[in-house]
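Example record

One chain of 477 residues, shown exactly as stored in the release files.
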Amino acid sequence: MPRRRLIVVSNRGPLSFARDAEGNRVVRRGAGGLVTALRGLIEQHDVTWIASALSDEDRAVALEHGDEPFDEHSAGGSPYRLRLVVHDPVVFDRYYNVVANGTLWFLHHYLWGLATSPDIDGAFRQAWDGGYVPVNEAFADAVCGELAEHPDALVWFHDYHLYVAPRLVRERCSGARLLHFIHIPWVEADYWHVLPDDVRRAVHEGLRASDVVGFQCERWRRNFIQACEAITGVVCAESQVVARGIAIDPGEFEVLAERDDVLAEEQAIAASRPELLILRVDRTEPAKNIVRGFRAYALMLERHPELAGRVGMLALLDPSRQDVPEYVAYKRAIEEEAAAVERRFGRGVLDLQIGDNFAQAVAAYKQFDVLFVNPIFDGMNLIAKEGPLVNGRDGVLVLSENAGAHETLGEWALTVNPFDLEDQAEALYRALTMPDDERRRRRDGIAGYVREHDLAAWTDGLLADLDRAIAGVASRG
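Predicted structure tokens for this chain:
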């Protein structure tokens, strides 16, 4: 793929700024899987990255540069430009906590029990009109400012924070070349009717203004096409909507697995692990289905007492969105369920650790016998790819049929219905007792797929999709 000029647009940026104990400014790599996945773009292309100023120090940096882009360098030394968009704190809270994470995230993962939630009230309307839309307008302003300087640039939007921005850019810069990738599931058309008509139309019309809309798998792509037609009355062109599952950088991850801090964490895990280790690595969010996973594990222990003293579960969980009440309640439910399992089956049978320790998670990937990934719904779930790649014990992947990763990894995983405790308990037992040659075949299959379909192939594929879509429009007009 030739080197391109790209404008990458996401809520969270590749860097965050803070002050240390001595008051000196420090720079930290941005958190989250999206930032990790896109970091390679900086090495391969000429990138201007537009993101929200999230911290006080981010805002100070943005103001120092007059809200204009400034030069930065990646960890590998490649130059890029960063433009931080400053938002009013009240407006940003409405956009981020009420609409994006408090509403859209729950909708996309089918998390509402519709008999009791949500209540679409005046507070939501205020958050949409006075939060989500103004923040998207601010991003559109920044994008159009960059396009005025570099009209040849390709614009790549990301995720549920920026659904209406492509239409706003298209209205102001009609010739812009726009790609929008959705990292999370896309629900069926009927579920969108939870939201007011104008809001659900704005979401789909905003995305339809892009030249290409990308999804993690064919299932989510198909749902979008059907929902878009049902809600807007317009049929999307086949070339406009694509399915390309996000990937990882295998070489980088394999190097990471041998880093000193990872090796130290692995030594600690190896010294204390049971004979058979079930691992789950997740954020403490309801879509990850952690409580049901613990219950399925307890059911397996109940059905197979011969495993007592031989098997244990290590749950490494990153606390997520603790400013959203539902997430606070779910974290508490996780802790209570873990305690109940230990009271019933004995201390050490479930080792729950809540914290942000990436080195420990990578070390645990190398040590598991079973990797348990059972989300209710997930756009992709990169843990299902990362773990088997570096695992050294021919570990077996137990994978929800509702994870986007299942579309490509399902033939080597043990598939489970994430709501069926019996199904999950039986799959855990089957994984623990699987013959060695079958374990090796399954693990090698996943690792081989991950190496072949890497991060570079994902980014190159989406940019090629954009080129084809633009060429198709040009040939028709």
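Notes: The chain has two domains: 5-246+458-476, 250-452.
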